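CORE FACILITY INTAKE
Project code: CF-77B
Contact: R.S. (postdoc)
Sample description: multi-component assembly, two entities in total
Requested service: structural model of the whole complex
Turnaround: standard
Below are the sequence entries exactly as provided by the requester. Do not edit them.
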Amino acid sequence: MRPRPALSAAAALLALTVLAGCGTADPSASLPTGTKEGGDLVYATDREPTCLDPHNSGDMPQTYIARQYLDSLVSMKADGTVVPWLAQSWDVSKDGKTYDFHLKKGVEFTDGEPLDADAVVANFEQIMDPDTQSSTDLLYLSPYFEKATAVSEHTVRVTLKRPYSPLLTVLSQAFFGIESPRAMARGLEANCAAPVGTGPFKVAEWKRNQEVVLERNDDYDSAPADAKHQGPAYLEKVTWRFLKDNTARFGALQSGKAQAIFNLPPESVPAATADSRIDTDDFVHSGVPFALDFNTDSPQLSDVRVRRAIVHAADAPGIVESAYAGVFPYEGNALSSGTPDYDESYHEPFPYDPDKAAKLLDEAGWTGRDEDGYRTKDGKTLTLRLPYNSDPGETPPADLTIFQNFQAMEKRVGIKVELQPKDAASMTAIKTDPTAYDLQGRYWNSPTPGVMYIKFSKETLDIDNGQNVARDYDDELDKTLVEAAGTTDPEKQQQLYSTAQGILTSQAWHLPLYPVQTRLATRSDQVKDIWIEPSEGEPVLHDAYLIRDGA
Amino acid sequence: MTAETTSSAPATVGPVGPVSPEEPAQPAGPGPAAPPAALLARLRASLPGRIALRVLSALVLLWAVATIVFFLQHLVPGDPALAILGGASANPPPETVAAVRAQYGFDQPLLVQYADFLGGLVRGDLGSSYTMKEPVARIIAEQIVPTLQLTGASLAIAWAIAIGSTLLTAARPGLAARIGSGLEVVLAALPHFWLGVVLLVVFAVTLQWLPVVDDGPAGLVLPALTLGVPLGGFLAQVTRDEFDAASRQPFVLSALSRGTRPGDVRWRHVLRHAALPGIALSGWGLGSLISGAVVVEVIFSRQGIGQVLVTAVTSQDLPLVIGVTFVVALVYVIANILTDLAAVAVDPRLRTSIGGAS
């Protein structure tokens, strides 16, 4: 054993690597001046998708990255209207059941396939095919979609079983990005690893647990009508880096290793605000806010008086403020403020009122008390089980604080809340077992107020996939939302969706807490013009460019 | 001297032990009649035989690992088909769930699934990951290299700490030994998740001496320190005890009286004795480094099988869990063989004692 030379070699290596690590190069150092053209961008995010084809499964990380290499038929604006994208124009039949999309001509997928009506039809077929293992797309489509057909080379006809006015906003999500039929035909494995679209970038490489490398599509000429510029992207390469750890992700931004990070950790917000080189962009998601859903199959919660009492006793604005320190606002409506046709009058429908809560509980018959002071009825304690995922990635510390605050507030009126930390597999099991939970924390990002139908209708309850977490429906609500889906008149839609928000509020099937937000932090001294599109809060890198002299 | 001789003695006398008087050892000619005990004894007596036994026991170990993991994963609550389709946050319709069940054979009885699974293993087919939709072998091949780099570098750091601390402070009079020993206890007690975040914040975020994330060698420094420092403290403690004992042996005195310089005695003679238990523990240490890699890879966002294992377990990705467990078990087995060889390299007596038995 002669460790001397080996040791000194190791020491030398250590010294070398330390030196190599010093200093971070300016990403724009060697770029041509006077233009926005060129350069590499590192974009760091927290969650890695399991599949890059957003038709499969349908989780948020998929849509964020898919926006960079897939184009959709239409693009949504913040007011809920849509503008042309791959579809230059469209006609909707009088009965609202037929949509004709007229496609842009001369567009090609990055594998050389032409974008034509047949290609779009193939996309709908792939989404509907069980082998694609789609989840989100089917929730939006299957109750309505009948078939897609090619009417001419550049006209696709989508035929619906019944009118569905949210269809256009739904199709604007990257979940419905259009992919090359030849690429989709390779099967799930190959298509998950590198889907092919018409977008501004193409997937060059996916190093699992590390990054996806995106290269510019030099022939890109199909940007949406609301893009900041037409033609190819400015950036030559985007490294889509996965940095799960909050400290590492924010540190990468501070040190300039990344020019933009997604999901700025709440604890880093003060540091980011104090740093003049860091800009933050907050986006309130359209859809259903983060809420505690009440399982009406539980005998305690089948009584609307008990549900209302819980909401009155919770002081939801207070518990959100205490957990998120003002970083996230409170939202008490069934829809987030970023949703089209959001009705502000339901912002705080059941203000904090412990006396009223007590009265409602008395009326519901929960008049006894056990030795701990909790309310009882027929000798049974009023207990509510709240299982949650114990992984801090799924249940951030602030959400756990919310649960604990909620538990403390409900105790004051004599309701016992049991917090049950669970592993991911148990949470999956609970989802389809309504006897295993009374309350569950959930949210639903969606570009349309029609999401109320996905979450609270008889139709989704009957599918029995755990989607209708409250496990209840209201005939009047179903009728209202079906009617809203059946009209394209904006005024009528607004009135109907407002009625629906009222019905949902009076049912008290859930306790809404805060709107889901996307928080993007960028190095304002290095990069400009990353924007967030409104349908799913997807970051758009097509217009982004690196700052240098003369640009 | 004596302590080492007895500790290596079982290797020499071991093979003779199980042979009973009624069945005298039959060293000449294999013959089918050779009783298992004698066969075992003969196998143990030669180096190739010992290796063959090692491989055989490794195979049994791998089978046991696969079986335990297979049935444990099936005891986990929840439908793997739902886990494949995105877990608790996804809402696949029943037709999709049914399609997945049929595709992956979840509708078959458990024993049929087990037989299929074992059949695949025998063919060397680890299957395809449920969630990543890629062959398990390819995923592991891609992810094992960064993990081995990390654990290798960590082990080197651990040994550098152990040797450095021992040579500088062990068996020295006064305060030096106590400070050294105390420091080692502190290092050994540092938890990875804490040390990693502290190193990250101090050296990467605040001082910016090292990158927060980097795929090159510079990015290896902090993760390797996170894993290597606590193990180094532990190895140093073990080595120090042995060093203290060895430095009181007569051969030290005789070397010194021959005029060898004290530094050379510590370095060439005493350390050689003192390193043996540490080397034996390094095999275990490598395994513990791989489990520690799970934490470190997440903190430093490194590629590696640790991260893969975490996601695979939470998403009930059975083929991937088994694949990674397999590889970890394999690393343990190989590491133990390597530490045996290293012990032989450091202690020449082991060479002759094995040779003598065969």
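Facility notes:
- Residues 1-24 of chain A have pLDDT under 50 and may be disordered.
- The first strand of chain A starts at residue 40 and ends at 45.
Invoice: internal transfer
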